[in-house]
Amino acid sequence: MWFTKLWNVDGGNALGFSRLMKRYISVSRRCVIDIAAKDGELRVFLFSGEVSGDTIGSRLMATLKKLSPVPVRFSGVGGSMMSRHGLKSLFPMEDIAVMGLLELLPHLNKLKVKLQETIEAALLFQPHVVITVDSKGFSFRLLRQLRARYNQKRSEVPVHFHYVAPSFWAWKGGEERLRGLAEFVDHVLCILPNEEEVCRLNGLDATFVGHPILEDVWELNLDTSPHEWKIEGNSEFFRRIHAIPVGATIISLLPGSRLQEVTRMLSIFGKTIELLKVSFPELVLVIHVAPNQHVKDYVTGITNKWPVPAILIPGGSLHQKYDAFSASSVALCASGTVALELQLARLPCVVAYRAHFLTEWIIRYKAKISYISLPNILLDSAIIPEALFQSCTPVKLALLTSKLIHDGSLREKQIVAAEKVTRLLCASPGNLDNVEEPHNRWRFPKYTPSMIAASTILYYVKP
């Protein structure tokens, strides 16, 4: 049920939202910003280990600076997006961007060194708040060891936030493992409906802030109905500036963000394109490249040898990304957040995933869900075709992609499902009629997920 009235808040009064949050704080207890005010600044130590987290972190940094009544100083680890908002990363984020379980083994020593470097930097910085974004393996080790060090020193302990709840719903025994997090995580900022409730039931303080992908709508300043949550790019402009012939079939390729992942998936995608070229002689590829110099260099080098023209879209450029989505017939993507971006763009897609064969075996054994892409998980239905593990072959991907291009009913089915997915991402736990609920306010146009997250941090009081 959607709210029938909007609060009259103008875009310039960002602090008005923060004042509203104070209503829910006992006057006898001190919140984070009150503690920081004594020092004349708010010190925030941030950690993000991957591209999606870099985007979340950058938006959070911008909002914290906007909402905080005292100057904010940042330290930690992040990527190019976070650097634009004043973070000087301790080391390149790409140094720890490793995915998979068995794939971690060759990098364990380097990761251990980087972890200790991050811990020492955090202790030296003396933050009021420590925020880790996703990357649960590194993040939870960081928060656990930091808490232990502070307890040893018996010094004032900063508040620990983790942004993006671990996917406990995907793994056997996932909920039980939440209980142990409360020892070193003070509060979780959840991005999916119902995660807040489950975290709290397992003794972990949490707030549902909304999914960060929805901020693309606000960042592009789109005038869209909350019933739609849809982004339409300019396909004509995209075709014109790239001189794409009329009648050409455009396919968007999204091979991932980590070099290890891109290397594996782009090899499979390249062979898939060779097969599709037979059926679609006028084929144009659009490859969305993560903001990672190693990835950019690799993609440029390998696609120069492909028999099909490829247009590279730089990561971080929302306008170019959604213009390309609008011009494309379908997308072929590695499993990840991008599947939700494609839902916003209403672009039908095929999801692919490959890893080390032992990693794949462990996933099969430990997973308790049938799908890997979040849209399918949210709908509990195989709306988006998935080619996983040994089934992720060029022949299978070419067949699924070709079928999706030719079959209008399949495309329409995905588009209708995308509308349901975006509505689910807007759903909020609790009583939706109660507009006084702080965690419901993000659904209003001016109350973005990063604003709810930032306000939760600024006015947080430990239970």
Topology:
Layout: H1 14-21, H2 32-39, E1 42-48, H3 51-67, E2 72-77, H4 80-83, H5 108-125, E3 129-133, H6 136-153, E4 159-163, H7 174-181, E5 187-190, H8 195-201, E6 206-208, H9 215-219, H10 235-241, E7 249-254, H11 259-279, E8 283-289, H12 293-303, E9 310-314, H13 318-327, E10 330-334, H14 338-345, E11 349-353, H15 357-366, H16 374-379, E12 386-388, H17 394-406, H18 408-426, H19 449-458
Parallel strand pairs: 1-2, 1-3, 3-4, 4-5, 5-6, 7-8, 7-10, 8-9, 10-11, 11-12
Helix pairs in contact: 3-19, 5-6, 10-13, 11-12, 11-17, 14-18
Q: Gist?
A:
This protein has helices at 14-21, 32-39, 51-67, 80-83, 108-125, 136-153, 174-181, 195-201, 215-219, 235-241, 259-279, 293-303, 318-327, 338-345, 357-366, 374-379, 394-406, 408-426, 449-458; strands at 42-48, 72-77, 129-133, 159-163, 187-190, 206-208, 249-254, 283-289, 310-314, 330-334, 349-353, 386-388.
CATH homologous superfamily placement of the largest domain: Glycogen Phosphorylase B
The gross shape turns out to be: globular
Mean pLDDT score: 84
**Estimated radius of gyration:** 22 Å
What structural class should be given to the helix and strand makeup? alpha/beta
Total discrete domains: 2
Give a count of the beta strands, DSSP E runs of length 2 or more.
Answer: 12
The CATH level-2 architecture of the largest domain is identified as: 3-Layer(aba) Sandwich
Main pleated-sheet profile: 6 strands, parallel
Task: Assess the beta-strand content as a share of residues.
Answer: 5-15%
Poorly predicted regions: 1-16, 22-28, 428-445
- Amino-to-carboxy terminus distance: 31 Å
User: Would you give the CATH topology of the largest domain?
Assistant: Rossmann fold
Q: What strand order characterises the main sheet?
A: 2-1-3-4-5-6
Tally of contiguous helical segments:
19
Portion of residues within helices: 40-55%
CATH class of the largest domain: Alpha Beta
